[in-house]
Amino acid sequence: MPEFTWREMEYWARTQFRGTYEGQIHHDFGINGHGVTDEDLCAWDDHDHEDYRSRDDVVSWPDTNVGFIVGVYETFIATDNLQELNLLWPYLKKTGLRLIAQKEQYGDPANPWAFETSHNMYDAGGYCQTYSTGTAILAYRCMALLAEFLDDKETQKFYDNAETETIKAFEKKYLAKEYK
Asked: Cα separations (Å) of 175 from 52, 108, 167?
């Protein structure tokens, strides 16, 4: 069964955005809403397909990126397969950096490590910034741990810091006063 999960993670990696939104994980396997049914998959290396929501919306979703990072981490912990982790590590690094870029673009100017204007798959018009910020903490922790497994000390230090700063931002924004 883990082999299926590794193939899914490889699929998300190979179809991630390139160029302007490099590392962003798509929302969909297929092109739902654009003439293709949910059962159809985009090609393995189709990094530029349309999702069922507009591109401007999809690229503001940190949770798709978090899902990929956490999915690889969970699968690695379950299998201890360093070969697969090494294969996906360059993709993970791009997705991790995309998450940082989203924090820069959709972050709170007064509290830079917290999200302010992001969207996600579950927002449905509600306030999702606690979810986006909180899940980013988990992704940063997973990136630091995976970097440690691979002896990538520079990346480990970077994501250890990102996790620490995001925890501080979350506490300051959401726990220091009554939640809005």
From this structure: 35, 15, 10
Tens digits of per-residue pLDDT, 7-36? 999 989 998 989 899 998 887 655 555 554
Q: Which contiguous run of DSSP H or E holds residue 68?
A: helix 62-79
Phi-psi map region of 59: left, alpha, beta (phi>0 left; psi -120 to 50 alpha):
alpha
Q: CA-CA distances (angstroms) from residue 84 to 9, 73, 109, 112, 145?
A: 10, 11, 38, 34, 16
Cα–Cα distance between 67 and 25 in angstroms, integer? 9
- Can you read off the two tokens belonging to residue 58? 């999809």
Tell me the CA distances in angstroms from 168 to 8, 17, 98, 174, 179, one per residue in order: 33, 30, 21, 10, 16
62 and 70 in contact (C-beta within 8 Å)? no
pLDDT, tens digit (0-9, with 9 covering 90-100), for 123-159: 666 678 888 999 999 999 999 999 999 999 999 999 9
| Rounded Cα–Cα distance for residues 127 and 78 (Å) | 33
**Distances from the Cα of 102 to the Cαs of 2, 10, 11, 30, 50, in angstroms?**
30, 22, 22, 24, 19
